[in-house]
Amino acid sequence: MLTKKLQPVQSFLSLVSRSVGHFPRQHYDVIVVGGGHAGTEAAAAAARLGAETLLITQKIHTIGALSCNPSLGGVGKGHLVREVDALDGLCGRAGDWAGISFSILNRRKGPAVWGPRAQLDRQRYREFMQSELLSTPRLTVMEGSVEELLVTDPNPEQPGQHRVNGICLANSSHPISASSVVLTTGTFLSGSLFIGQTTSPGGRIGDAPSSAGLSHTLRERLGLKVGRLRTGTPPRIVKDSVDLSLATLNPPDSSPTPFSFMNTHTRCRPEEQLPCYLTYTTPGVERVVRESLHLNCHIQQDAKGPRYCPSIESRVLRFPGRRHQVWLEPEGLTSDLLYPQGLSMTMPPDVQLRLIREIPPLHKAEIHMPGYGVQYDFVCPTQLSPSLQVKSTQGLFLAGQINGTTGYEEAAAQGLWAGVNAGRRALSKPPVALSRTESYIGVLIDDLVSRGVTEPYRMFTSRAEFRTSLRPDNADLRLTLKGFELGCVSSSRHQKAVRVKNSLQDALAALQALSLSTTSWKRKIPDVHVSEANSNMLSGIEMLQYKDVSFQVLASIFPEVLLPFMEFSQRLKIEAVYRPHCESNKREIQRIQEEENMSLPEDIDYLSLPVSLSQEVREVLHRARPSTLGAATRLEGITPAAVVNLFNYVCFAEKRKKTSHGNQRRQKEGREEELCASLPQ
Amino acid sequence: ILVIKCCLFQGGLADADTIFALSSGYGRCGVAVVRVSGPASATALRSMAGHRLPPPRTALLRSITDPLSGEMLDRGLVLWFPAPHSFTGEDSVEFHIHGGPAVITAVLQALGSVPGTRPAEAGEFTRRAFQAGKLDLTEVEGLGDLIHAETEAQRRQALRQMSGELGHIYRDWSHKLKRCLAHIEAFIDFSEDELIEDGVLDQADRSVCDLQSQIEQHLRDERRGERLRSGVHVVIAGATNAGKSSLLNTLCQRPAAIVSPIAGTTRDIVETAVDIGGFPVLLSDTAGLRESADLVEQEGVRRARERVQQADLTLLVVDSTCLPSDVQRAAGFLSEHLRNMCLLVLNKSDLLPETQRQKLKMELRGVSGLPAVCLLSCQTNEGLKDFLTVLQSSVKTLCGDPLAGAPTLTQARHRAHLQQCVAALSQFQRYRDSDLALAAEGVRLALTSLGRITGRVGAEEILDIIFKDFCIGK
To answer: The TrmE-type G domain covers which part of the protein (chain B) (predicted)?
Structure first.
């Protein structure tokens, strides 16, 4: 996969720019607004599904830009990358193409929480994304700025008060219509940039601000509740000006592990990888922060920033008198810049320079571009359904930072899922949801739509209840087959996943069949302490659960049975160890899935529902409008009695509907019989 | 590995939990019905009431035993309802047992020890019946109200318990466990990028260890449950010829002990089981306490003293005609030997003139350090009613009052959850060094089990602790 040549981007650019003046179509199935991590995945997914898709972005050459840190994955985030890849998304393969330093975080803490992560070459990542998008069938990429959404009356047969059926571009009188519109505007929705005491409109330095019209439409026309969040990015530092001998070298894994299930190796060769460096803040840093607080607008604002990725200012203010970690990360194979992870800051540029020079390896450092803060609008995500469509507005989907999340991976995951559902809507298929019992994407979306956000939302493994089942190693088994049914997975990936699934099943069956007494096992593997207390038979799977027994060891004892499965040795070891825990998760997962399968009609009027519910419960349900019974049970203030009453209502409402249909049919048949009877014989 | 195999076995066998609960009302009743529903019902029936399953839907009289200890708990009717012909549509079992709280609690606790079973949540039987399509619309409409009533009752019950000492203990555990989990989660989610001090995990190790032993200790120490199973131990003690054996016979309403005017008639311990106010009581009559040259009587006195030490409640019988000098001896005896609950019984009141009876009552009530005093006559039964009231309330206090919301039943539920909690904590220990994710899973399970008593703990709450305790920001 990685040996393929990227399509020459330049020729596509000319092709597209030609189409900008007099674009061939006035209608698309899906329009995606924004070319960031959410937008690229959304557009690609919709196109894979078979929808004619248009991606509109301000500048084609910023598609796939890494606005902040030059890295992908990590603990929890790596899970998302693997899942996006399992659904045939782009970011995993892009990471394998652009990665220049790979490591599996949490290597010693158990495979369920391993965090695949890579430092990226910014240039290569953009190249891959642009090439991939510009060569995707059914996908058109266009430069432009969206001025307005086309809002019309809703389709009365579906729930919702409005319908979006297209967009209007700035500087163009021609609207473009579409069945679905996906907004992935990132930090550009009413975005403002902060450095020191200056503020300017925009979502990223160097890019034009998005139009105020869009924000206005969402708020005023569609009546969506909007909040404000903030984030920031550190200054970029000239590599040559840094004394790396004063920092601790942190080498990558000696053998890089690819993100994608489709790749056996990464583009970057192991020996080509670049290391990261670790250093620490000093008391001088704290002093500079305190002295410059009055010059720092961003930090004085009360928009909510993330607790886990705070600026150096908030870190120092919240935990004074401590030293804080600063990672110096490469920006690319040939880049002459370093990215100081942990030094996001918004003070005036001259103070930024003073601050970083308080850190020993940076005592002579030069700043290439200062850090800055961004404040932006987000749409409260409780107004979305699990398909990421706005509940009140047919055809409008939101993904990424506009939903209050932070992080490339979180954006990519939502983008992919919004793209799938936008495509399905255009193809007249019902919306689909991922359960929190089957994926981190499901956890992410369920958290967003059922709880909302109070600060930028980031994925952690601690958010997943079924962490031992939702592992990075088995994302393909969990999602690829399902994705294929939905149409967002290519047949080559599907075939591979089926082969893997069958091989793993065969291998586990073979292991299960290897049943020997403890004494025989002891004779065969003398180094391993097989518990004496267990006098009965032990299967190969049970042996594999022992810490020091690897699949390789078993394969060397039973080569004829096990050698064919050597390529899966690591996955088999993990499967064996986690199996009992996943089994015990199963019941709970089943219960939750049953409840989630019971959907609550979107147009249900909780305030007047003829069901015994307290006023308090009615109001909670009215506000949150859970889409399933499962989501309702997770709401605060919902009593078990209320759940049962809702459950009854839903079941009997369905039954009543069915019987009334049945009655009508019977009546009709009856009339026909009468008719027949009255005919002359 | 053994545990893992058990899990596999259960996982393969059971799709859903097997639930059990007392289906008849709380409090004193002639017959109590305990219902079990789910795939492990047959296992429960076999392990508690004989290995052969009775024919379907036929009542059979069986001995009901504890599956772990083999101890007989009761004799009662058992019924076996194989799926789908049962109330819930699942395999079900009913135990019709004697209605005392001791028996009920014992049977519920025994059921809790059968693998794959757990106490039912409010309304769960009805809900299962509904899901299996066993209820019609009118029945179902009442279900919400029923569950509402049950959860209300549980809530009130929980509130009562939570404001007490027990609640304090549970909350403290829950708090410790939350912090412990938060620190482990912080180590998992952030330690690769952030400064999470190495000591964090060691601290978690210590907390888990402490909690585990505290909860185990608590489960062992819970004398109340045992009292209910084997009855409250009430020991009758006192000087020779005070009328101890007469009191025993009066209480059990039969001549269980030999009564004679000769001092030292009772030499060994005479035990008899009686029902006092619906509670099982094991009543022991002991040899009169006096110095004796008789070896047999010496041994009797030694046993009497030993029994008094182990008693839940001592009835100190004094011959009221021997007062006042006897009061001094009684007081001395008290301070010397009795640390447990004690009632002072002044027997032979019929031999006292009316004026002295009144005087005695008044005087003794004022003496500090003396327990409750009852004046009665085993001969004429005078004062017996008052004595029984006092005795009953003491026994009730020792067992918990089922009419006040059935704490014994809640207790059985708590016990089951605490046992799960301890088991889950041992999973942490087992995986601590090999797989922190699986170890953390143990702490999560422990917190879920404890959360069933103290309230659910969500991921956000854990994250709040993480961000409060650690400076995380890359």
So the answer is: 231-396
